[in-house]
Every structure is written in structure tokens, then in C-alpha cells.
Amino acid sequence: MKWCISCLLGVLCISPVVFADQPMRLGVITHLSGAAAPFGNSFKAGVELAAQDLGTDWISVSFEDDEFSAGRAVTAFQTLLKRGVDVVLCSSSTPCSAIAPLAEQRAIPLIAWASDDRISRGRRYVLRNYPSGAVEGRVVAEDEMRRGVDKMALVISQNAYSESWAVGVREVIPRDRLVFDEQLSGADTDVRSIAAKVLHKRTDSVGLCVNPGQNAALALQLRQQNYRGRFFGCAYLSDPNEIEAARGSLDGATYPTPQASPEFAAKLSTRSDIAVPIVAANAYDAVSLLKQAWTARRLADLSTYLLTLPQQAGAAGPLVVRNSNADVYFDFPIVVATAARTR
Fold first, then answer.
1. Which pLDDT does position 62 carry in this prediction?
2. 6 touches 67 (CB < 8 A)
3. Exposure winner among 71, 115, 177, 212, fewest CB in 10 A?
4. Of 137, 99, 155, 96, nearest to 282 (Cα)?
5. CATH 3.40.50.2300-classified regions of the chain
6. DSSP 56
7. pTM
């Protein structure tokens, strides 16, 4: 490894000059345990599949578990820095929000599987490989409006993704139809009181984007209290474990999601260990574009380089990297899917 040494204001800064003939050291921070593990392990599987398909000679990967915690994500990032990683992938808006300012400060390229545009906006070294949660919220809310629903309730968690998703929902649903709008803290585990409040409003539809595990609990509580309306939600409903835990309460609920390409879907057809295939597809695409940047020796200006690339035939569908008001992100079609138990 050759090193470029510079001095600024008396502080010695040492940064590697990377070369494409050496393996790229990739650090991955995701949720390998806890309620969000189905998403994190699917993300990990996507990284592994990409490294396998694209050849392992160009990459070495280190994984760290953040348990869907901002604090643990920061610890994981610091661990990866000590290992000398060249670039980091993280997953979900809450952990990535904690890492992003640190990556920017250290000039470490960071690709965040996250929908909160505050993570990447105005930052040189941070970009997202997912459209904004507001886009997802608009897509699923527009679908709900087309169904002729009159009175709606909205229940979200106090996390960056849920809040971003809710912004899009509120942009679409008229205020006079959104008759209940409440936020749960991460510490709220008893959903009976919130269920009672929703029932009191006599809504036709409930939008759910609470922390993994809570969506099933709240939907089940409402059904047990004879709620007969519809449910719609966010990407948390793409986890089949959440749908199974709801015991039929979330069957028929709608949620926004990208759509994996037929080729990638076929690749996963023999794998039973990936709970959320589209998350694996998003991770796969991130690694694929990283290889292009590494080969071109453009990791140091990753966002600038990716913006020059033509549309890609990604695992998560047609993909193009965009810059919208100093926010660089991967853009691809978002569709509305319907939840159903698979077991």
C-alpha cells in the first residue's frame, strides 16, 4: 500500500491512495440480531451473493451487527475504521443516520440503504442506495386514495424511516380524511391503548409504520377488538415474519416496495435463508456499482463517478443514480405490493 501524507493546521493526516489491483476492504453494518434481523441478514446475503458473482479477488468484506441501534452502529463504524476499511455499507435510516456524519468527517465513502434523505443531503461522501421514504409514502397513499377510503388513521414510530414515510403519506391524504395521527416511541411495547384510540375514531383504513414486530402486534390487537377496516404500511410489511406474527391480521395490507428483476428473483428461487429478497437485491446492486467504481479508481469521489454511469439493469430493477438538491441516491421504480402469509 502506498500512502499520501498531508499536513493541515499542524495535524498529520494519512490517507491511502487506493489501487484497483488490490482488494477493496468493504465494511458492512447491519442488523444481524434482534427484531430487524430478517432485513439485516437479507442485506448481508445480498452482499455475499454479489461478491460471489462478481469475483472475490477484488473485495474483502467485514460484517458488524448494529442490532438496529444507533449507538451500536457508531461502535461498529469505529471498529471498521480500526480495520482500515475503504468504504462502508449500512442499512436502515436509524443506524445510518448515526454513522453518516462520522463517515463525512473521516472522508470514508458510505452507501446507506436508507430512505431518509437527511442522511445524504449536502454530504460529499455519503449517498443512499434507496429512494426517499417520502416517495414510498406517496406511492402507497395514492393507492389508498384510489380505493375510495374516507377516514384514515396513521401510526408511526419515532425513527427516521417511519417519519420520512409519513411525510409522503401526509402529502397525499387530505387533512380532513386523516382523523388520527400519532407517533410511538421505541419504548412503547403495549399497543392496547393506541388500538383503543384508533377504534374510537371509526376509521376505514390504518396506515402502520412502527418498529419491526410492533406492526403485527398492533394489527392483531385491532382485529381482536373487531376492527374491520384496511391496513396499509411501509417497507416493514415486506418481512414475512411480521405478516406471520400478525396471524392473518395483516393479510391484504398494502405496502411500497421495489420489484426484483426476474433474473435476480430466479437466482434466489433456491434460497430459503433470505427473508426479504428485495433487501438482498438492493445490497447486491450497491456492491455491483462499488466494483465499477473500484475498477475505475474512483472510490474517493464515489458519488461524482456514479452519477456519470448510464442506467443499470439492477437486481432491484432499472437503476439510475440521481442528484436532487445535493442528495445523491439510487432511483428505481416503487410499486405497491400486497401482504399475505406464506406458511
1. 98
2. no
3. 71
4. 96
5. 3-130+260-315, 133-256
6. G
7. 0.85
